[in-house]
Amino acid sequence: DAIATALGDDKDSGVRVTAAKLLANIGGAEARQALLKALADDEAREVRMAAAEALGKVGGEEAHDAIATALGDDKDSGVRVTAAKLLANIGGAEARQALLKALADDEAREVRMAAAEALGKVGGEEAHDAIATAL
Questions:
Q1: Is the dihedral angle over the CA atoms 133, 100, 47, 43 positive or is it negative?
Q2: Angle subtended at Cα 83 by Cα 79 and Cα 87, rounded to the nearest 5 degrees
Q3: Considering the entire predicted model, what is its pTM?
Q4: How far is residue 1's CA from residue 92's CA, in Å, rounded to a whole number?
Q5: Contact between residue 48 and residue 81 where contact means Cβ atoms under 8 Å apart
């Protein structure tokens, strides 16, 4: 598909961001794979952020796992903040664990704040205890 190819190959990061947004609306296995690759490998933070947001829309366990991984591993705090916000909407035990780890361990204050806010939405006693401890 030309859009998936543009996401992976275009030299212009603006084109890659647009491709990620379009793939979110298209969905399907090919779109998911292209978005997963962009989130893991693209050099431009804005493309990784757009890929994370698109994966949040496309959904699926593999997409959710990739967003949780980005929260823990991405070098850019903006991407990690985006991942935390997305995990608030995804919810579940895996999202909660990734958010708890970010709240406790991330060096960037804005990521810890986003994780705390997301944990408030995800809920659970463990989440509330971690937020209280962080405060």
A1: positive
A2: 175
A3: 0.90
A4: 33
A5: no
Phi, psi of 62 (to 5 degrees): -65, -40
**Cα 111 from chain centre:** 12
- CA atoms within a 13 Å half-sphere pointing along the CA-CB vector of 32: 15
Q: Phi/psi of residue 105, each to 5°?
A: -115, -20
Q: What span, in angstroms and rounded, lies between the C-alpha atoms of 5 and 11?
A: 11
Residue type for 33, please? Answer: Q
Tokens representing 57 are: 């829309």
Record the tokens describing residue 131, joined without a space. 């937020």
* 8 A C-beta contact, residue 32 and residue 62: yes
CA distance 33 to 38: 9
Residue 29 structure tokens: 């296995």
Ramachandran quadrant class, 35 (left: phi over 0; alpha: psi -120 to 50; beta: rest):
alpha
Where would I find the H helices in the chain?
Answer: 2-9, 13-26, 29-41, 45-58, 61-73, 77-90, 93-105, 109-122, 125-134
* Per-residue model confidence as pLDDT tens digits over 72-121: 999 999 999 999 999 999 988 889 999 999 999 999 999 999 999 999 88
